[in-house]
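Model it.
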Amino acid sequence: MRKILILVFVTCLAVTSCKDGASTKQDFTPASIGQVNSLTVVMSNELWEGKVGDNVRDQFAKSVVGIAWNEPIFTLRHLPETVFTGAVRKSRSILVVQKKDTTSSSYINKNTYSRPQNVAVIVAPTENELIETINKNADHIISEFNKTDLQITQGNFKRSLLQDTSIEDMFGVTMDIPSVYSIGKVEDNFIWLDRDIKNGTMNLIVYALPWDSFSNNATFISEIVSKRDSIGKKYIPGPNEGTYMDTEKAFAPSVFPAEIGGKKAAEIRGRWEIYNYSMAGPYVSYIINDKENNRKLVVEGFTFAPAAVKRDFMFELEAIIKTLKFLPKKASN
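Modeled.
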């Protein structure tokens, strides 16, 4: 009997040790490094300096939609494979491009050298096939990189959140808004928050439109501009009398499908300006289909930062908006 008890004890100890070992491996994976919207590209100098490198830059350093100046979606850092060692392997977003005598393929490895991390690998036997494989898979790879950067950014918000319930009380939604933002204006069906940055501001606005505000797809963009301009004229004045925010007419907004708070939405990216005054900048707006409340909920971020790079400012505003959650409706008595 004593031998049986000892055997059971030793077996339990071994199982526990195995479990501990498995969790320890995960726990001790180092944290990934690097700024958001940055990408380490690992490929030979020959490929980087030729048409394959040009194609990588075309796909992964193309301009951010809605920003007038050419700002790349990712800041690229090229490394040949021979120096891809040590700390650089902990980069959060990595793209590996290799010409090998094998079938063309593309895949993403998660948390290979650090956590969280995406290592996208593209392999093909010829340069033309590499370009074809890059073009075919770039959108998916970019989406995965962006998801991880959004998660990192949103996690950083939680260190210090704005303690204000104005948005919750008026619209029945919550967002993780950093405490560096403050409430600038609260009016009937409209809330405006902002934060100071060097030589400018970052802004969030929230308002609701009737469910039937947009008649059909053919006139959707023009109706978006019209509704947005009416809100700007009513609630967002410029620096001088008779000036107010509207939509820059020379820059047609771009519209993409989206999902916010578990509901279908339209993502609109474009340029705002101040009517009769020299001020302008990019905006990203989400029109959310909130059928349960018979409304279109609109949440928009816009930046004023003359002569500054605006990509990361807009990315932060997007990250805030994508934390939005709808609160359950309170039961009526």
